[in-house]
Amino acid sequence: MADMSPISLGVVTACAAVEALDALVVPGRATACRVADDETLFVCEPDVVGEITREVETRLTVVDTDAVVLDATDGWAALRIDGHAAAAVLAEVSRLRIPQRGFAQGDVAHVAAKVLVDDGGIVILAPAPAAHHVRTRIDHAVAGAR
Questions:
Q1: Residue 14 sits in a domain of what CATH number?
Q2: Which of 46, 82, 123, 130 could join 10 in a cystine, given CB atoms 3.0 to 4.6 angstroms apart?
Q3: Which residues contact 101 (CB under 8 A, 6 or more apart)?
Q4: Is 4 helix (H, G, I), strand (E, B) or coil?
Q5: What integer pLDDT is reported at residue 2 of this predicted model?
């Protein structure tokens, strides 16, 4: 059985030189997701987004004065799939190979999405404008898994 629910997460985007991101000490309250050589998303609880943004910016600009760090929370919608059939549900809407634990990115319901896998299940970060579509497709997959 699997269940899907929208959840609240904060998302901070950092764009900087490769060496700056490579050397960055990630704040303990955030999960770093390297989406490109020069870009990392930091996923965190919504109440610490401001702190994470400031910490990452302070740390990055020591190495790269041109680094850009932004609160991108409003640009993303987060959905959690949990239960023993979570991976099967995701497989219904994506060919993405997901890790046992960690981060992957790619097509989910024909939308470029980010996927985080942890002990609690699978979190999908979908661009906010496509969130309804992704949620609807996952709802159908969850219903089919029951």
A1: 3.30.70
A2: 46
A3: 117, 118, 119
A4: strand
A5: 85
pTM of structure: 0.93
Q: Is 142 exposed, middle or buried (0-12, 13-18, 19+ CB in 10 A)?
A: buried
Compute the mean pLDDT over every residue in the chain, rounded to the nearest whole number: 95
Name residue 39's beta-bridge partners.
15, 36
Query: Side by side, which strands form the sheet with 111-118?
Result: 3-7, 76-82, 121-127, 111-118, 102-108
**Which two tokens mark 89?**
């549900």
Note whether 50 and 94 are same-domain residues: no
Per-residue pLDDT tens digits for 36-64: 999 999 999 999 999 999 999 999 999 99
Each residue's pLDDT tens digit, 3-41: 999 999 999 999 999 999 999 999 999 999 999 999 999
Q: What are the structure tokens assigned to 129, written together?
A: 């404008």
Are residue 21 and residue 69 in the same domain, yes or no?
yes
Closest CA to 81 of 127, 137, 11, 40: 137
